[in-house]
Amino acid sequence: MKKIRFGLSPCPNDTFMFYGLLKAGIGSHKYSFYPVISDIEDLNRHALEGRLDITKVSIHVCALVLKDYALLRSGAALGRGCGPLIVTRKEFVDRPLEELTIAVPGRHTTAALLLGLYNKKAFERAIEMPFHQIMPAIKKGKLQAGVIIHEGRFVYHLFGLQKIEDLGQWWEDRTGLPLPLGGIIGRRDLGHECLLEVEEMIRESILLARRWPSGLEGFIRAHAQEMDPSVIRKHIDTYVNEYSLELGPEGTKAIKRLFEEAALEGIIPETPKEVFLH
User: Fold this and answer.
1) Could you read off the pLDDT of 161-184 as tens digits, one per residue?
2) Which residues constitute the domain of residue 114?
3) Does 212 reside within a domain?
4) Given 150, 157, 223, 278, which residue is catalytic?
5) Among 73, 122, 86, 77, which Cα is nearest to 101's?
6) Alpha carbon distances (Å) from 80 to 36, 56, 165, 170
């Protein structure tokens, strides 16, 4: 039986999608999946160091590791109405963004890449901070603005913050395409057959989760950082969709467009040529 180190974040969309692989025995006749559950920027670093066999990463970092990894066509976080938000306190709403002290949830996150496309000067001045610390830091006056991800889009108003820009909507308005946020990459040295099999197993896992089997809710809540149940459901409904089952032509086009724009701005070294399995 082949052992696979499988990286995922503790966010509800990931624990929802991959429950079947990790807890319900999908693929267990051939593979043994060892979960590495960590913050997305930690997973990004693991991928840059080549430490995981298959892992969730930000689409941003995917572009940097394609010599050793390929992007799978299932398990992605991609869609409409799901992008990072730039938020601040009321007194800074009308200030130029590049003049504010702004945080991103990791230099290699897609949120940081989008900030670079939206406002290069703000991106160059941005500091890194774990995503769950950004909103409290703005509220306490330690920061003036931040790019928030995950469930932050549902709860930022609870911190008394206001939205400067929805970077997902900004992307959609400019391109007409859904926004690629994260994806599943697999080491090319696992072999073409293995990666295609895991790609299909992820689809099976998502379809299983949609039936909400016994044990799924407990698994999600165990990693959801005391998140309110209604926020958990909003999170899953927002980030798990048909693109998670299959990127399809539109999803593929969106990822390639994001890479092209990032390369033109110098955020990634070049536009990757071999992104997916062939």
Assistant:
1) 999 999 999 999 999 999 999 999
2) 85-175
3) yes
4) 150
5) 122
6) 28, 19, 15, 11
